[in-house]
Amino acid sequence: MSLILDGTAGATSPAGIAVGNATVQTGGIAFPATQVAVTDVNTLDDYEEGTWTPSQGAGLTVVGAFSSTGVYTKIGRLVTAIGSVTGATSVAATASNPICGNLPFTCGSTLAMGSGMNGLATVSISCYVNAASTSVSAASTLTASSNIYFSVTYFV
To answer: What is the pTM of this model?
Structure first.
């Protein structure tokens, strides 16, 4: 049996046909909840979306209660994580120190870059994830603001 890509209606196949361990459904391809890894690096075998909770990094100065939130998308080895860290009164970041930890996946063997900004969107910074790390660090100092928003994309 074969998978049909018609260019207009998307992918269609007889009911129950599996593509690897992903199944073709009306409206898309469903990947299993647990990745079934394959050895061919050119085979897409994983897609996941979720939430994560950034932990307070050593490079933050937080005034008031700390809170955080985050979302991520993982496509194969590529992860994009978006998050925010907040102090009830203010939060600030120092250069070259973690603003948060607890990324949903450990960064692979290469440094990853991202960006961030203060809660007023008046100051932006570069941020990064070191190889073999789950922490996001600020590349420069970010003065006190209500919160810090950031996004990083990296390979696992």
So the answer is: 0.80
